[in-house]
Amino acid sequence: MSRAASAAVPPTALDYHVEGMDCPNCVRKIEGALARLPGAAQAQTNLTRQSLTLTLDETQTPRATLEKTLHDLGHPLRLREDRAQRPHEHEVAPWHATRQGRLVLLSGGLLALAFLFGRLEPALAVWGYAAATLLGTWPLALKALAAARAGDPFSINTLVTLAAAGALVIGEAAEAAVVVFFFAVGELLEGVAVGRARSGIQTLTRLTPKTARMLQGGRVAEVPVDMLKVGDQLQIRPGDRVPADGTITAGHSHLDDSPVTGESVPVSKGVGERVYAGSINTDGVLTVQVDREAHDNTLARIIHLIEQAEASKAPISRFIDRFSRVYTPLVVLAAALTALVPMGLAGQYLPEALYRGVALLLIGCPCALVLSVPAAITSGLSAGARHGLLVKGGAPLEAIGGARVVAFDKTGTLTQGHPRVTDIVPLTGMPEEAVLRLAAAVEAGSSHPLARAITERAAALTLPAATGARALAGRAVTATVDGQAYAVGSPRFAGETVGLPAAVQTQLQVLEEAGKTVVVLTGGAGPLALIALRDEPRPDARAAVAQLRALGVQPVMLTGDNARTGRAIARALGLEVHAELLPQDKLRLVEELKRTGRVVMVGDGINDAPALAASDVGVAMGGGTDVALETAHAALLHPRLGGVPDLVRLSRATMTNIKQNVAFAVGLKLVFLVTTLLGLTGLWPAILSDTGATALVTANALRLLRFRPGGAA
Fold it and tell me: Measured between alpha carbons, how far is 323 from 489 in angstroms, rounded to an integer?
């Protein structure tokens, strides 16, 4: 093919299911092989999904070559189905039905038979141990050879193969068989740990029912959920799970959203309110219009984000990966020197020196060390998701616990986001109803909570048509009504544009000191009316602020509201406040706070987008909304501020778990390194130092799944 023709062929986007990808070592091996294949780019592996996505220039590396390379490494590939069917791929086979489980059972059986033969006829025992060793080592040797060809000669499979072969050479067949068996058990334990994470995601996929009751021409028909389209009308009876994201068009009920948002108390919902796939309808018959198809509902998107998060490595995980790539070759070199230097100095073959070298190879296996971080991160992410705490990766999960400051937006974050109009103060003799009609017409197209409060108050009125509506972020909304330009904006905006007389400023001050937010309706050359609104703090806001202080984190409020209202809310909650901030002011303050340490910003994910993006970790408040799921680095899927200190606790519990895991992995190896070099322990304890550490690391990481909000892991 000519160069021009090659350039005309675009790279192929591939999405594979990877068999046997059950441990972090498998991921490292696959990523290393891909890095050495020309034309393979944008490769991303996901241990929990057992997936590999990449783009492949097939003019440089044919697809068949890619698939054969990974097949030789012990990882056959299968192209995945479309995204709509992906959630159902997380079926977890029992351990004894897996390839690794069968290998453990077979090699363990041979080991037991060899032991029994040794009781009856010692000569037969040697052959039994040798058979068990060869059976267990053969697949490892093939993987080691394939890894060496792919550019990774110092894989873990290489270490165990060399150790088993060395043990056979020096006549330690029994120890060689035990070494291979324990290594197989260690790999099985790693697979079990990952399988637990997959089971957690599989539990989420089972929350959505397989069928739905669809209304068609006045009749109810039961149809598969995958057939639902946007706009379909569904009937949901008491006790049913909601089959799709939608909006209630008839009926009223309490819905248990805990499977989706972690909110423990059923929520009262009626016409016009949203429901989520997987929620449970408790007491009333509802008619719901489908808003999202099955593959794109909130639950499917949460699963997708969890999978993406688990593919995102924390800084400490990347450090462990880099360390192990240097560490493993050094272990091979140290083992070779331990075996060869004494023999060179003595000028003769020394079985005990070779024995110690083989033991050192086994002690050096970094399985438990490599597993220590991803096992804890995966468990932490899964535990958070169960309680409505969605963290998008290991990096933000690591960072949250080290935050020095948590900055909160006010409206919709510290407060409930449902302000109500409390006072209408005309300034020119205009009737209150006329003020409300004009203000609601200007605000009709705005989604800001204050705008919604004004339009809700005017719901019973007939509004004039408004044209040319324009939002000035953090300042005002302007529009033309009946040929006249009007604005509904902050007192600062009104003062800058039309001016506020002293008497009006006095009225403003009285309202604001009562903890109310005031907007000014302006038109022509002056202010026309003041509209006061009040938004009450969330019920758990004060407790959440107190919990953060107890955790050693400084809470602070950043609000665009006026200083008096900001201070009134801040006093009630017991935190510092910065008020009258435009979006760019919030961004500037976040940057300033970051100079003294890590900053977490908590906001609604819309007006606070710049500050959320600039913070070390941005946390979006919401009830499973698009913004909460797509914006920032983490999201609270329930409307409770207590989730913020829970995120800090979860992060700290995860980092403590990681430190414990690293201590287990390194500590056991150091102990057995010393005892082996002193001749006190041999091959069996050496491999136990790794398998035992793997078991400890796995069990310790799974403890995080018991994390509960409001307490420790």
Answer: 56
CATH value of 392-415+537-637 in 3.40.50.150, 3.30.1490.480, 3.40.50.1000, 1.10.760.10? 3.40.50.1000
| pLDDT tens, residue by residue, 392-412 | 878 889 899 999 999 998 877
Write down the architecture of domain 211-296 according to CATH.
Distorted Sandwich (2.70)
What are the pLDDT digits (tens) for 513-534?
887 889 999 998 799 999 999 8
Average pLDDT over residues 445-463: 87
pLDDT digits (tens, 9 = 90+) for 622-634: 754 565 556 678 8
- In 3D space, the residue among 690, 618, 51, 657 whose CA is nearest the CA of residue 378 turns out to be 657
Per-residue confidence (pLDDT) for residue 48, from 0 to 100: 65
**Beta carbons within 8 Å of 656's beta carbon, 6+ residues apart:** 713
CA gap 12, 644 in Å, rounded = 42
Nearest to 202 by CA among 392, 50, 18, 28: 50
Q: What residue has token string 């330009």?
A: 485
Per-residue pLDDT, averaged over 23-50, amounts to 79
Write the class of the CATH domain 3-80: alpha beta
Judge whether 383 and 578 are in contact, CB under 8 Å.
no
Q: Is the dihedral of CA 526, 529, 530, 531 positive or negative?
A: negative
Q: Which residues are catalytic?
A: 409
